[in-house]
Amino acid sequence: MSETAISVRDLSKRFKLYRSPWHRVLEWITLARFVRHETFWALQGVSFDVRSGECLGIIGVNGAGKTTLLKILSRALYPTAGEFAVKGRLVSLLELGTGFHAELTGRQNILQSARLLGFPEEDVLRRMPAILEFAEIGEFIDQPVKQYSSGMFVRLAFSLFAHLEPDVYIVDEALSVGDIFFQQKCFNKFRELRRRGCTVLFVSHDMDAVTHLCDRAILLSGGKVVSEGDPRSVVHDYFALMGQSSGAAQGQWLPRGGDEANESVVEVPDAVRRQLENGVPGGHADVGTRAVEIVGFLVAGVDGRAGWSVTSGGTLRFWYLVEAREPCDDLNVGIHLYDRRGILVFAVGTANRDIALPRLAAGERILCVIAVTLSVQPGEYTILPQLGGWRGAGDVGVVYDRLESMPPILVTRRLSGLVDPFYGVAELSTEIAWTRRAET
Amino acid sequence: MILGLWRYRWFILKNALSELRYRYAGSALGVLWNVVNPLAQIVVYTLVFSNIMAPRLGAGSTPVGFTLYLCSGIFPWVAFSECVARGANAFVENASYLKKLPIPEQVFVAQNAVSATLGLAISMSLLFVLTVGAAGGLSVTWIGVPAALLLFQAFGFGIGLLLSTLNAFLRDVGQTVGVGLHLWMWATPIVYVEDILPAKLQVLLQYNPAYPFIEALHRMIVSREWPLAGTWVLMLAWASAAPLVGYLVLRAGRVEIRDVI
User: Within an 8 Å CB–CB cutoff, is residue B251 touching chain A?
Assistant: First the structure.
């Protein structure tokens, strides 16, 4: 049983937004009887634990509260409510380089930063050779850092960071700076640290890295933990959220609800109708409000026969039977497709295509089909059918219903001659032409 | 507060020292400027006041005597006002550190205070040499000078701490400090002798918190007498009350300071 390295309980952070600094003074003078500020909760009741030696991924869209959370954990900000405990020393890559003084040399800056972080000087002096070797800065180390390239700057910062050996690391996007070779070196160092039993908080927009490096992940949205657990499933949720927010946030898509002329003529094979009545494969995810529900879902080929496998370049039809539990006029029916690494390959919904679905009364049903041509690399893919609404809290919209734990879609190799028709993740629309008349 | 300062003592000291070192970075004389500047001041005061002003001030002042009077007030005042003025801006100036690092806020105010005190130590040492050399030998009352200076600086640190918190929320505070310090300096007998004030104003001096410090220094350096016990008590009171109030205000505002800078 491993012990807890970080425990966070009901952590909240409120920012007070004043339109004028004098409003704050007014509040002071009147002992807060006049309230003249608006509040913004960057974090609301965030709780989680990190076991010693564990790597926790923290993901979320920009503004979800990730940075605020990290700053509180590294004690650069004070929380408004709640408590947290970090066992041992914590170093955050957020901080590195901020302590660097442009006029000081690399060597002086290493010592200065260590002092800033409250590390004893002897420790750093002892580790100096290793730090210098890792940073690969050469004789520049005794030059002022203002003469460094940005790459050198980051290398020095990361090197110092990696060699301080605290108990808890906070690693953020900074890991993805520098050239590819240094990046690989950083990742190797990172793995080595993990092997040594360091606890790590990993914050990244690189979902591939999160799925591969982390033991667990949490998803922040609007300052709250909306998903927690296995990195793959949390990453799924992240993309679902992203898919939701992208169209809705910018207000590009406003449904013309109830526009019957908009209805496309769909021929529904009887076999499909029958099978849709059988309910859904997998199960409903917990996240949905279920105001509108997927009551039937079917994956079928163009011939209408159910099937979860397709040749690369072939088309699959995703059939939805949707029933409204409550009246709804902002319905967005969509599908997400992830590859085996958890990377979102493709997601599309009615909102993306500016298709306005009719206003639904409670109890009303519609049938919807999304046909996708899977011009992707052969392999297994997972799908995530979802009903969303753009009128949700904040800019992320609302999830009505989502299906999960479904069998994977198998995309098989398309044989055309001796070689594969394309290499890479997906086939892009291509035209190739040639002529003998090379001279003009 | 003390614990936070203690943990970062090396940071404070090194930064204060390197500030002295780098303030004149790039100049040929470098560190020497820290000595040349107060020296030049002493020379200028001696020339100007001994020959032009001194006759008007009367009171049997010798040229060197008035320089001594002037410098024993001006040098501490300059260091004190540096504590206050730079202290007031300490949080705003160091926002980039405060927003990212777990450094206790008061560290930055202390750093300014220490660096001002180091500068003060240099200029007062020069003044000490001047007294021994030109103003007729050593007086035992010099022993009390460092104590008075440290108390004065502690007082300045306290005010700086208080203002730095207020300034984080209301930047106008920082702007007001310069004006305020200027007025305060002229309300304190530093450049002039207190005897030239009308009697009514002399009574008001008792309410000027900087007055006991300057008065004690004048006594020990110029008149070679020990300050009254009451003066020491006042100095001690101000030097402990200011940091305490500063700390209490900082503690009240601490949660939000880093949000607003």
Answer: no
